[in-house]
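Why does residue order matter? Because the sequence determines the fold. Keep that principle in mind as you read this record.
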Amino acid sequence: MTTTAEPVQGDHHATYREVLAEPRFRLLFTTRTLAVTADSLRITTFSVLVFTATGSALFSALAFGISFLPQLFGSLLLGSLADRLPPRALIAGGYALECAAAALLALVRMPIAASLGVVALIAFATPLFGGASSRLVAQWLEGDAYVLGRSLNNIGSSGAQLLGLALGGAAVAVLGAHRALAVSAAVYLGCALAVRLRLPPLQPGASDGARGDGGTVRASLRGAGLLLRGRTVRRLMLAQWLPSAFVAGAEGLIVAYAGGRRFAPGWYAVLMGCLPVGMLVGDLLVGRLLRPPTRERLVVPLVVLMGMPLVGFAAEPGVGVSCGLLLLCGFGFAYGLGLQRPFLDALPRDGQGQAFGLLGSGNMTLQGVGPVCLGSVAEGIGTGGAIALAGGAALLTAGWILRWRTDP
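Structure:
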């Protein structure tokens, strides 16, 4: 494999500066952050476009969430390609595909069903690009440097989502929906060109599928089965999936909660912004100030910190208290930093790209399912009660994690 620098060693307490000094990681981090901004801009704008065309809240919600569920199927059926194809071509091709889809939505007046199909197709392929990128990061950053690399990706994604959501509204107002989609296409194109021109040519990762024993779908299903049958890997995946899925379900009820409590117009946006702000602060503080063993010991307390504030919504607090509770909940997301090294250590050397793709696609899928399930519950017990129920489920998950982490 052609490289330009030695992997960043991670036996000590790394710093963000050391991680960003690795030029290949810096390139992937920058392009990924820009792509997440473009994702948020495209999703928001596409939802507006669909609502304008149909006048249907259902179709608008479907346009917003259509990129979740197909990711799981893509990971299960094509995930082995994240290890079988050259990563530079795969990552650059992924951004180019995103560019083509956004340009198609911007320039071609298609039926709504066809537009949704285009977005679903991109989501189906997303685990391949994400898995290949995550595999490279795991190769280039070792030990604590790898954990801080994941932390930087989390911070970048949170900030990019906030920026993309803000730009989405402004871009639609100033440019119109179609031109705003064209802007997102231009950002994707820039990411594709940067990866193609600046990332060195790299070899595919080693995997069973790479030896040719079966087709892509068979190799992908076999690889996913091996990962999920391993108890340690399965537990660590569930530990990363479940708390965020419960919080995503609660997040999906914030608009309804603000409306039911008759908060002033616009406050729902402030409430929704509290979670990513809390996530940013939590990742910065936990990643920068705490040593690796301390982060791993704090996994369960931080999951408790995610769930406990949501339980407080059973009392239906006002705006100020609600903002504080959501900030604390977002801070608790830093628990994931304590699971990064154990998860990487538990993975087989073959097929790491597929493992990271499955981790990401499962997380996105459950975050898409969570709001639907809790929305149904809220019809019966109210939004405050449903949000509290999500917090209780996160606390139960913390108890489950504590039990198997203390097993001999």
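The chain has two domains: 15-211, 230-408.
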